[in-house]
C-alpha cells in the first residue's frame, strides 16, 4: 500500500511561497506580501487554525487535495477543452498507398488498444517505479485504469468526471467510430469474443460506405468543442429527446472514440500533423469529427496522419504515453504480417449509425460553438522545433539534469524577450502517494533570475566563470524544487488546500489569498511539461493564459523536440520569436559549459574572464 499524500509544514510552505513571489514582483510589492504572509503564519493566526483543520480533514481522505485539485485544475474551468485543456499527440507518419490501407491500420490500432485493455481489465499492468530522483519507489497506477472508463460530462458551473460502476452496468463492448462527422457504434466484443482484425476491417469498411452514402449530417461533435457552460445547456436540450439520449449514452459509455479523418494537405510536416491532432483544423475540416468529452480519441486520416487527442482530467501524459508505446510496438510487431481472416463470428450485425434530433435551441448552440472554435483555431500560433545541436546526452555529460537544463533554457528565453521572469508551471508527479497526480515545480526561482540577468549582461565585471557558478546554483534550486514536489512537499497543492479549507468553513478569505501577487503566481505565463517518448511521437497543447506560452518538450539523446504555442491576438507573446530565442538560449548555454570546461582545464587556478 502506498502512503497518503502528506500535508507539508505550514512555515515551510510560507517560506517557499515568498521565494516564489520574490523574482516576480517589485521590492515594495514583495514587502507588502511578506507582511501578509507573516500575519497569516503568526502563532495562533489564521494559518495555524487552517493548517490544523486541514490535517484533520486529511485523516478522512485517501488523498486530501485530489477533489480540490481536480476542480481547480479542470472541472470548474469554463474554457473549451480544445487547445486550452486537451493535449494532442502525433504518432509516426504512416504511408497509405490505397484507401483500404487506412482501414487496415485502423483495424490493427483497435486490436492493439484492446490488447492493452485486456491487461488493464485484469489489473495486470506492471507497477511503475520512479526513475531519476527518488528512483525505485513504487507509483500509484490508478490513472491508467481511468483511460477507458472515464467520461467528462459538461455542467453549468462545474463538469463531472464519471466512471460507470461495473457492478451496476455491464462493461462496454463497443467503440464509437466517427466518419464524415457521423457517429457509428462498432461492437468490438461479440458473444464474449474480441473481433479479429479482419472482422474489424470489414466493419470499418461498412462504416466508411455508410458515411459516404448517408445524408448530410449536422456536425453535432462541434458542441463538445465550445464553452463548457454553453455545451451543458445544449446537452440539457438534447436530453429532452429519447433519440438523443440513446446516442449520448452510447458515446458516453464507449471504450474509446476512433476518428477516421480526411487528409488535410499533401505536406505532412510536424506542424500540420500537430494541428490535426490538437484541434482538427476547424469546422470545415476535421474538428466536427471529434467528441472532445471522451477521454481517449484516436485519429487515423486517409493520408497516413495519425495520433490522438485526450481529455486531460482523468490522467497525466505518462499513462497515455505508456499506452501509445504499447500500441505502436503492437502495430510494428504485427505490421508486416498479412491480415488473415480468423474464424469469423457468424454474420456480423452492421454497425449502427447514431441519430440526432436537433431543436432550434441546439442549432443556436451549434452555431455559437462553431464560430468559437474557428476563432480559437485561427488565433492559435503553434511552432514545432527540432533542436538538433544536442540532446539530453549533453547535459548528462556535464553532470546536469536534462530537465533542469531545458527548464532554465525556457527561463533564459523568456528573459531575453521580456527582460523579466514570469510564473512558470512544470508538473511534478506525486504518484508516490495514493491517488497522486501532480504538484508544481517553480522554475522561475531567485537563483534562476540571478543567472538569466548575468547571461544577458554585457558588463565585463560578469565573467563566464561567474555565469557558470550562477547556472549551477539555479540548477540546484530547480533540483530542490523538484525533490520537494516529488516528496509531496510542494507549495501549490498545500496553498490550494488552505484556501479551500477557508472557503469550506465559510471564514473571510485571508489576505494572503486575495493579495495580487498570489493571483500573479497562479497565472502561469509559461506552462511547460516534459513528455518523453522512445518513438518518434510527440505531444502538444495550448497556453493556459491569454499572454502565455505552452511549451511541451521531448528530449532524445541527440535532439530535443519542442512544441511551442501562443495566441496571435496577444501582443506580449509570439511563438516564432520565442522559438528563435530558445534556439539561441540553448546555443549560449552549451557554449558557456564548453568554454568554462575548456578554460578550467587549461588554467585550473584562474577564474575565467569573458
UniProtKB/TrEMBL annotation:
Chain ranges of the Choline/carnitine acyltransferase domain: 5-583
- One Pfam short name: Carn_acyltransf
Q: Name one GO molecular function term.
A: choline O-acetyltransferase activity
Reaction(s) catalyzed by this protein?
A: choline + acetyl-CoA = acetylcholine + CoA
Q: Known PROSITE patterns for this protein?
A: ACYLTRANSF_C_1 (PS00439), ACYLTRANSF_C_2 (PS00440)
SUPFAM superfamilies this protein is in?
CoA-dependent acyltransferases (SSF52777)
Q: Which UniProt keywords apply?
A: Acyltransferase, Neurotransmitter biosynthesis, Transferase
What EC identifiers does the entry list? 2.3.1.6
Show the active-site residues.
312
Judging by the UniProt lineage, the source's domain of life is Eukaryota
User: What job does this protein perform?
Assistant: Catalyzes the reversible synthesis of acetylcholine (ACh) from acetyl CoA and choline at cholinergic synapses.
Query: Can you tell me which family this protein belongs to?
Result: Belongs to the carnitine/choline acetyltransferase family.
Q: What is this protein called?
A: Choline O-acetyltransferase
Annotated source species? Branchiostoma floridae
